[in-house]
Structure formats: C-alpha cells, structure tokens
Design a protein that fits this description.
Layout lengths: L1 H26 L5 E8 L2 E3 L2 E4 L5 E7 L5 E5 L15 E4 L4 E6 L4 E7 L8 E6 L1
Parallel strand pairs: 1-4, 3-9
Antiparallel strand pairs: 1-2, 4-7, 5-6, 5-8, 8-9
Length: 128
C-alpha cells in the first residue's frame, strides 16, 4: 500500500513540476517585443506605439488597405541582420505584410507612408 501511495505522490509531484516549468517558460521575457502596425487607406493603426528599450522590436507592418503603402522611419536604420546599409522604408503591397527586427535606443521615432499622395499617414513609436 505504501509503495502505491509513494508512486502516486511522485507522479503528482512530477506533473506539478512540469506544469510549473511550462507556465514559467510561457511567462519569460521574449528576446523581442512584437509591434503590429496596420496600414489602411489612408492611416496607420495604432498611430502611437510605446515600447521598452530593453529588447529589440519585431516590427510587423500589415497592409489591410487597397493601396500599396511604404512604411518609412529613421528607426529602420537600426535593423538587425541586414548587410550593407539598411533600407529606410518597407514597401507593403495590399493584403501583404513586411517584417523586420530593429534594435531599440530610447527616443521618439516618427513614421509615415512614403507613397505619393499619402502624406497624411503617420505616427510615432516611443521607445522608453
């Protein structure tokens, strides 16, 4: 009887430990923080984004509009994994997305659409 109880207790302890480790791993800080910005006809949503400076940003621009858009920001100069001079803008066709990872340095970074006639499209990324 004692061995049965011991095995049952051990099994519960192992299950509890595995569950605890899974929950801990899910709550760990990711090496990147993801920022999703949607380009529509003719605005970006959200127009203001705040992120922490501790981790790089995975910047995803999704074009949910009918027009092509081009996300332009000086923040793109800090792209990782790019050989040579990083591009200063990311073109995004309708129903497509563009994605890049940028290093974070505290500051205020403006972004806009570089397409002709889209001058009103813009926003701000604040790295704190």
């Amino acid at each position: 009887m004692t061995s049965r109880v011991d095995r049952s207790m051990r099994a519960r302890a192992v299950t509890s430990l595995v569950t605890l480790l899974v929950f801990w791993a899910m709550g760990c800080d990711s090496p990147e923080q993801t920022v999703d910005i949607v380009a529509e006809d003719f605005r970006f949503t959200p127009a203001e984004v705040r992120v922490a400076a501790e981790h790089p940003i995975r910047l995803r621009i999704v074009n949910a509009g009918r027009e092509p858009h081009e996300f332009k920001s000086v923040l793109l100069a800090r792209q990782t994994g790019v050989t040579g001079t990083p591009p200063s803008s990311l073109p995004v066709l309708p129903n497509r997305k563009a994605e890049t990872v940028v290093r974070t340095i505290p500051g205020v970074y403006l972004f806009s659409c570089a397409m002709l006639g889209h001058a009103g499209m813009g926003g701000t990324i604040i790295v704190e």
